[in-house]
Design brief:
Protein name: Rhophilin associated tail protein 1 like
Structural class: mainly alpha
Main location: other
Subcellular location: Cell projection, Cilium, Flagellum
Family: Belongs to the ropporin family.
Keywords: Cell projection, Cilium, Flagellum
Length: 184
């Protein structure tokens, strides 16, 4: 009876004949290398916008993986390569600020959110939306709340890099948020 169920299942789901060998080779490689870091896992499928035929670039899901892994384990460049992200994109993001003393993760994260925004300004509604959606502990599709201090840090940092946004405008915006919304 078990064999019949398995045969029926195989007819319903097409399994390429080379899959068992691929899985065997992957398992052997994983055992041989004994990776210390957790494997990068996206929480959902994303359809990235390609900038070139073979370059899918940074997506919210990949930035979320980087946030989880780099924050805990460091080594941004290696993690970036492990996700098969284009090195040119990493260098472009790093050129937006002076990281000669080392990369402060939350600043890089903010710049990554800005890169996801896809517009010319460093700080905008899209970059802040990505930051909130990636950092939130709310269920997917929920409010995407993050602590006010985290939001204020990201917004202030990005606004500070934008020559068109004054410090007074940044302070005024953040003050209005505190006054009009429930801040936690």
């Amino acid at each position: 009876e078990f064999q019949t169920d398995r045969d029926e299942l195989q007819r319903k789901i097409h399994v390429p004949p080379e899959l068992p060998d691929i899985m065997k080779q992957f398992t052997k490689a994983a055992i041989r290398t004994q990776p210390r870091d957790p494997l990068p896992v996206k929480e959902r499928v994303e359809i990235p916008v390609a900038t070139q035929k073979n370059d899918t670039g940074l997506t919210p899901g990949l930035l979320k993986i980087l946030h989880k892994q780099v924050k805990c384990y460091g080594d941004l460049q290696r993690k970036w390569k492990n996700l098969c992200l284009p090195m040119a994109q990493l260098h472009n993001i790093l050129q937006l600020d002076d990281f000669s003393e080392g990369v402060e993760w939350m600043k890089f994260f903010a710049l990554g959110c800005s890169a996801l925004g896809g517009v010319c300004r460093l700080v905008d509604i899209f970059s802040m939306k990505h930051a909130c959606e990636i950092l939130t502990e709310d269920p997917e599709g929920g409010a995407a709340r993050i602590p006010y201090d985290t939001f204020a840090f990201i917004y202030s940092y990005l606004a500070g890099l934008d020559e068109e946004i004054t410090g007074e405008a940044t302070e005024s915006y953040l003050k209005s948020l505190k006054e009009h919304f429930l801040i936690f």
